[in-house]
Design a protein that fits this description.
about 600 residues; 7-stranded mixed beta sheet; Immunoglobulin-like; 44 strands; mainly beta
Length: about 600
């Protein structure tokens, strides 16, 4: 079976920048960046091979910018899926499926979101209509609006469409009548067919909180923290906002405010402007029709208790060796919050008055959830479950349609189980590595007295260059001396020199002098492995306070086409850490740790 492409004869190749497999929903997502008008695939044709039985399709005019992917499965309908650069000049990426049986017609469906190809593998589904999707780490899911692809089988005529039309939360035929001239020309959800699951039509501010309400099925994604100014961002996929609440700001208190916007055709973005991003959490109503963002330190949570619930069941389940679930059943609808940190998931059950910590740990012992810490309030209703997570864990949470069940699906990735140094550094083929010393010239970066961030970053970058060069790798510096280089030029250098990875080095700063530690930032999913490897090397070698990994939209890591990270190697605003940052010993140790992390990343390919 094949995919037929109708791509322009001119133009550059598409670039596949990530390949992700969501075990809990049996979804494969291939993300591609295009360089001309057109779609990565207009039609898909699957081709069958024998001995062993396997099916494949090719992506013409496409370059795989990530390592080849070879996934082995222990259950479901497929034994293996292999993604590789099958051919160059012309460039072809090939995706090969090894099914457990010869029923591929029923077991695979294709969709497209812009230039993302979605492959849905039936047979591994774990959700049903009772559960509504509340929270997800992923930024693409089977529940998103899809543009269907046609799948053509040579032996079948006419062509068979393998994709079902995505569920529409609101499917009302447009009215053909014309409004009276004096009536305001405002959208009315009843007059449109909306490719969405949730419609937001009201925003209400209260002291130290803001309520977003509407109807449908509301889901939100892993929050992001951005700086200058500091703000906390929540995205709501498959959602549409009413015109009257869109592109407006709402004051929460004297210093904090929230802005609501339609980020894309089916995604709402809520931006909370605050210097205290850790204080805000989203509280989900028991009917999943609204979310209340509260400041945990100042909001009176007793207002959330209008009826008490008791835990009646604690149910573990193992989907496969990488995915497990925790289901909590109650006798009354639960009001709860989902607070996703970089290294933890915190569930707060505000109106739960009876919860057995002893039963919880006995039932979940030996599972992913056995390490969770349970804190029951001594003053009244309220339970907090703190679940430590690996940096690359994927979390989804669900709420029962009656509000009486909460399910958490936790998936560990194969990469998180790999050991570092799979390949000795001396055996790693020569790589092209872009090293970016932050700031420079008239851009001093963070300053404390006569100590400038730009000088520290350049010293460390040169040491990284020296170490990698000794090992036979080609290092391209975005700057080699004290000169100003714009963010756009740094990205252009990366693109022009065709590096394998991009590492930007920075020094952190805060208005709070007590804050210290190292953090590593990435933005695109394909950069997470590099961020993990370098961050782990920095933490294990330098023994600093571990501030964790952050998904951040810094310009240089957002606009590069290769795996790209930004390392904040310490706080210049912290007196003790500042002293360390300026020593040759710490600079050399930092450089060696970055080199070790980069090589560990290549060793895992």
């Amino acid at each position: 079976m094949f995919i037929i492409f109708t791509l322009p004869a001119f133009g550059a190749d598409f670039k596949v920048t990530s390949a992700n497999y969501d075990l809990s929903n049996a979804i494969i997502t291939l993300s591609a960046k295009d360089t001309f008008d057109g779609n990565i695939a207009e039609h898909i044709v699957l081709k069958k091979l024998e001995n062993p039985t396997r099916y494949y399709f090719d992506l013409n005019s496409t370059i795989l910018t990530i390592p080849k992917q070879d996934w082995i499965f222990h259950n479901g309908n497929f034994d293996r899926i292999f993604i590789s650069q099958f051919q160059t000049n012309p460039n072809i990426v090939r995706i090969v499926f090894y099914p457990k049986n010869d029923k591929l017609f029923q077991d695979i469906k294709f969709y497209r979101i812009k230039n993302n190809i979605i492959m849905r593998l039936n047979g591994n589904e774990i959700q049903n209509d009772y559960y509504q999707h509340i929270y997800r780490d992923e930024h693409a899911s089977s529940s998103d609006f899809y543009e269907n692809l046609k799948v053509v089988y040579p032996e079948l005529t006419p062509a068979v469409s393998m994709a079902d039309e995505i569920q529409n939360a609101f499917n009302v035929q447009p009215q053909q009548t014309v409004k009276p001239a004096q009536q305001k020309d405002e959208p009315d959800f009843k007059k449109f067919k909306l490719n969405t699951k949730y419609y937001l039509n009201n925003v209400t501010t209260k002291p130290n909180s803001v309520l977003l309400s509407g109807f449908g099925e509301m889901t939100f994604e892993k929050p992001m923290v951005l700086s200058n100014p500091t703000r906390l961002i929540y995205d709501f996929p498959n959602a549409l906002s009413a015109q009257e609440v869109r592109n407006k700001e709402y004051q929460i208190n004297e210093t904090d405010k929230i802005a609501i916007g339609q980020f894309s055709i089916n995604k709402i973005r809520a931006v909370i402007y605050t210097n205290n991003v850790d204080d805000y959490v989203p509280v989900i109503s028991a009917d999943n029709q609204s979310v209340l963002f509260i400041n945990q330190k100042t909001y009176d949570t007793s207002q959330l208790i209008q009826g008490c619930a008791q835990a009646i069941q604690y149910l573990p389940a193992e989907i496969n060796d990488l995915t497990q679930t925790m289901t909590l059943n109650f006798d009354y609808p639960v009001v709860h919050s989902v607070d996703r940190k970089n290294n933890a998931l915190i569930l707060t059950l505000y109106n739960v008055s009876k919860f057995s910590e002893e039963d919880f740990h006995a039932i979940f012992a030996g599972s992913f959830f056995g390490i969770a810490k349970v804190i029951c309030s001594e003053k009244g209703p309220g339970v907090r479950i703190f679940l430590p997570l690996r940096q690359d864990s994927l979390v989804n949470t669900y709420l029962g349609a009656d509000g009486k069940s909460i399910k958490v699906v936790l998936k560990e990735t194969p990469r998180s189980k790999k050991q570092l140094f799979n390949v000795p550094s001396s055996k790693i083929p020569s790589k092209r590595i872009i090293i970016d010393a932050g700031h420079g010239g008239t851009d001093y970066g963070a300053i404390r007295g006569d100590i400038n961030e730009k000088d520290i970053t350049l010293d460390v970058a040169k040491k990284v260059q020296k170490e990698l060069t000794k090992l036979g790798h080609k290092v391209i510096m975005t700057r080699s001396n004290d000169e100003y280089v714009s963010l756009q030029d740094r990205v252009a250098i990366s693109a022009d020199k065709k590096g394998d990875v991009f590492v930007s080095i920075h020094v952190n700063s805060s208005v709070k002098p007590e804050i210290e530690g190292i953090e590593t930032h990435y933005y695109h999913q394909e950069s997470m492995g590099l961020a993990q490897a370098v961050h782990e090397a920095l933490i294990s070698n330098l023994k600093p306070f571990d501030r964790g990994l952050f998904k951040s939209k810094f310009y240089v890591i957002n606009h590069t086409d290769i795996p790209a990270i930004l390392c904040e190697i310490g706080f210049i605003s912290n007196e003790e850490e500042q002293k360390l940052l300026t020593t040759e010993k710490r600079k050399q140790e930092t450089a060696k740790a970055i080199v070790e992390g980069v090589l560990n990343y290549f060793g895992q390919e």
